[in-house]
Amino acid sequence: MSDAATGKRALAGRRVLELADEKGVYCGKLLADMGADVIKIERPGGDATRDIPPFWGGERHPERGLFFLYTNTSKRGVTLDIRRAEGQGLFRRLAETADLVLETLPPGFLEDLDLGYRSLRQANPRLVLTSITGFGQTGPYRGFNSSDIVASALGGSMVVTGEEEDPPVKLAGSQAHMMASTYAAVSSLIALHRSSISGEGQHVDISAEETTVSVSHICGVGKWLDDGIIPRRRGTSLFHSVPSGAYPCTDGTVYLMINRPLHWQALARWIHQVTGNQEVLDPMFEGPSSARQPYRELLDIYISDFTSQFSVDEIYHEGQRRHIAFTPVHTAAAVARDPHLVARGCFAPVEHPGVGTLTYPGAAYRHSATPWRIAHPAPAVGQHNQEIYGGELGIAARELRSLTEAGVI
Amino acid sequence: MAGEDRSVAGTALGDLRVVEFTAALAGPWIGRIMAFCGAEVIRVESRKRPDVVRGYVPPWAPEMGVQPQLSPWFTDWNAGKRFAALDLTRPEAVEIARRLAAACDVVIENYSAGVMEKLGLGYPELRRVKPDLVMISTSGYGDRGPHHRFVSWGPNLEALSGLSRLSGFPGRECTMTQYAYPDTLSALHGLFAVMCALDHRSRTGEGQHISLSQTEATIAVIGDVMMEYLADGREPRSLGNGSLHAAPHGCYRCRGEDRWCAVAVFGEAEWESFCAVLGHPEWRADPRFSTLSSRLENRELLDQRIEEWTASRTDYQVMLALQEAGVAAGVVQNTEDQLHRDRQLAERRFFEEVPHAKKGTVIAAGIPVGLTGTPGRSGRAGAAVGEDNEYVFGELLGMTREEIRRAIEVGAIESGVEG
Q1: What is the distance in angstroms between the Cα of A333 and the nearest Cα belonging to chain B?
Q2: Is there a contact between B231 and A141 if contact means CB atoms under 8 Å apart?
Q3: What pLDDT, in 10s, does the model give residues B49-103?
Q4: Catalytic residue selected from B51, B105, B183, B315
Q5: Do B178 and A341 touch (CB under 8 A)?
Q6: Is the CB of A193 less than 8 angstroms away from the CB of B199?
Q7: pTM, entire model
Q8: Which residue of B has its CA nearest to A31?
Q9: Measured between alpha carbons, how far is B130 from B101 in angstroms, rounded to an integer?
Q10: How near does any CA of chain A get to the CA of B236, in Å?
Q11: Which of A50, A367, A400, B57 is a good FRET partner for A90, with 20 to 30 A between their CA atoms?
């Protein structure tokens, strides 16, 4: 990686091997954009994640898939067939140089090739092996097939998303996989922290079902056992916040959420000023959300009558001036143009040599000493074979050629 | 480094001490996971400005009034922590808070923008007393930019980030979760950022400040969808439960009320198995369904035919029949299903029983960090404001009885334990 010009990276010196499909590639990206040397290992010819549409420019192309491009930034790429004996030898040599191996294969797959945690740790006791699967390494469903929508369903996020009268619905993108990946990145670094102190690595077992339950637990079991209400879909409003929800404006939709008595007072005053509505000032609406719970529908009418007289921008800015939590319901275009996000430099242009410049969403965190950065775009198929096998492992050019001809790399 | 004298055996973060100045979910959840992994996490609060989550009136006994320790959210999101009570509007309290930070490796805060600085607890001040400190400030909009003082809650950011517009069925303008997703997803990104900074510290001895924008964390997890606009200026279509590269792919009605099973069929081998399970091998030759592109084109018809099969079966029957044939399928579970019907979660002991001072025990969703070598646990449920004053101020900071008495007198330390 060309780090010479870039200053300090938080994960400099950490090496990661990634054998990951769509469940784990975001984990590798998180680590790579913070400076880890992430070597992406693809099957000869390239991974299937390269075929996920849509594509930059519209035409199907192994280096233009937008999911692939987004989730593989800053990584180096090699090809390797780990089902072949020669491939396993190369994998073992690479694993000896690594701090972390990240994999998303079915439970038992690596063990069957003698590349499981027990085997890899013999040569490298500090190694952390992180496995991301749909259901985890143990249990009756460990052999089940998973996907983003399946993990979202079992994990409980779908049953509480969307409108009451609609079927349950998944969120945009692939949130079950994104959360499994993010948890995996967190756990991997926690395990590496431990490994640095104790000299002992460990196997990290991430289940996409469990990580989905975990991030949607706010309407989970503790609350249900307390109030007897099993959470389900209820449109745009949140059960415990009154008022809350999406309200119409002249040119779009705003989202409003009131949790504090003072915020309610500020909203009631504003509605009264604009519409002359006296009832909204009634003291029976004062206090915490629970006091307004019986009047939700009535308050929704007052608020819709009021918001529909303004544009989204007017409600957003005047509302925020009054410390009321109004936000626009942004389209992708509106997110890309949002003056606050643009001023913060939330989007990062990345040069793709010979193709053009593509803008990427940046990271959420700003480190004062070791900034986040996309070092380079996602690798082409086998882009770093020569650099890593030849340069770093010292494999002779002739041997490399024969491995390539044999389809190992 | 703090914690040299603490036992680190068996836990992953047992060498770390953390102090948090937080409220609600996005900040506290970072500390929650660190505590689960063995870090000592001290939460500083004031009774004068209580966490909104503590403002809980039990629905089964409203006459009890506000019961801060009975909030199922508070006790879960703050399990495993120590609780210290300081009124940070008092200069003496700020001095004590600085001493606390000096004894810690990590500071977590999610107060409104500028509050920590105004209190004299901003990163530059804290760095003076603890040069290698790692500090994270997390807020809805981040700590800079024209709107950084705007107020928001997790659900607001689903809307602001584009998530609610890009999700859901075509024609629905705003599709919301009931779980304030930006709070938990940004806490995970925040903890990742902290662990990166700690990795850097362990190599170089250098600490740093991290500022996190919860809006930008939410944009990051739909980054692949946003790229469609950023690359080609095209607004991404809402796909509902559909996929651009798989069919069948959806959520199908099963027997019973609000019972559903999600199914995803990728590739021709799975399609073949799927047709066999449904008893429709002829679909493979049907020109409307024989290829992926024809299935995508005739999705609605295909989904109807599938629902004819699922509607007469229970959701678990559908899942098991398809999984047996290698097809990805999963019941749309609610929280009761997860606790009582999910054999996988049960076998893996996913739900945790956590000791609670007033209720005996409560049940919490597990923290699935999956550390098989150093598994974590939740300790006790979130306790009262100032529950651990004696430990934190006496034992940890070494304040004498007289010093503590004086700090209570001037209103810096809030004494007594509330309901």
Answers
A1: 7
A2: no
A3: 889 889 888 888 889 988 888 899 999 999 999 999 999 999 999 999 999 999 9
A4: B183
A5: no
A6: yes
A7: 0.97
A8: B196
A9: 7
A10: 7
A11: A50
Amino acid at A317: H
Q: Fill in the amino acid letter for B58.
A: P
Domain A244-330 has CATH 3.30.1540.10: yes
Distance from CA of B233 to the nearest CA of A (A): 8
Q: Do B345 and A147 touch (CB under 8 A)?
A: no
Architecture in CATH for domain B249-344: 2-Layer Sandwich (3.30)
Shortest Cα–Cα distance, B243 to chain A (Å): 10
A255/B158 CB distance under 8 A: yes
- B-chain residue closest to A318, CA distance: B150
Hey, of A165, A170, A230, A360, which one would you mutate to test binding to chain B, going by the most B CBs within 10 A of its CB?
A170
Does the active-site annotation cover B183?
yes
Please answer yes or no on whether B163 and A235 come within 8 Å at the CB atom.
Answer: no
Q: CA of A145: how far to CAs of A194, A243, B155, B345, in Å?
A: 32, 41, 32, 16
Domain boundaries, chain B: 17-222+351-409, 249-344
Number of Cβ within a 10 Å radius of residue A228: 9
Please tell me whether the interface predicted TM-score (ipTM) of this complex is above 0.95: yes
The residue of chain B nearest to residue A150, with distances taken between CA atoms, is B330
Which of B145, B175, B373 minimises the CB distance to A340?
B145
Q: Which residues contact B308 (CB under 8 A, 6 or more apart)?
A: none
Nearest to B202 among A138, A196, A219 (CB): A196
Residues of B with Cβ-Cβ distance to A132 under 8 angstroms: none
- Contact at 8 Å (CB) between B182 and B214? yes
The distance of A299 to chain B (nearest Cα, Å) reads 19
pLDDT band with cut points at 50, 70 and 90 for residue A5: very low
* A280 has a pLDDT exceeding 60: yes
Q: Which residue spans of chain A are classified as CATH 3.30.1540.10?
A: 244-330
How do residues A30-49 score in pLDDT, each as one tens digit? 999 999 999 999 999 999 99
- Give the Å distances, CA to CA, from A147 to A21, A134, A384, B145, B345: 11, 7, 30, 38, 17
- Rounded to 5 degrees, what angle do the CA atoms A245, A251, A253 make? 10
Helix (H, G, I), strand (E, B) or coil at B253: strand
The pLDDT assigned to A4 comes to 43
A6: pLDDT confidence band, cut at 50, 70 and 90? Answer: low
CB atoms near residue B49 (< 10 Å)? 12
Residues A190, B371 contacting (CB under 8 angstroms): yes
Q: Do B264 and A210 touch (CB under 8 A)?
A: no
The CATH number of domain A15-215+351-405, selected from 3.60.20.20, 3.40.50.720, 3.40.50.10540, 3.30.930.10: 3.40.50.10540
Contact pairs from chain A to chain B, CB under 8 Å? 526
What's the burial of A127, exposed, middle or buried (CB within 10 Å: 0-12/13-18/19+)? buried
Q: How far apart are the C-alpha atoms of B98 and B375, rounded to whole Å? A: 32
- Dump pLDDT digits (tens) for B335-359: 999 999 999 999 999 999 999 999 9
Q: Tokens for A54?
A: 């849509």
- Which residues of chain B does A142 touch, with a Cβ-Cβ cutoff of 8 Å? 344
Are A218 and B169 within 8 A, CB to CB?
Answer: no
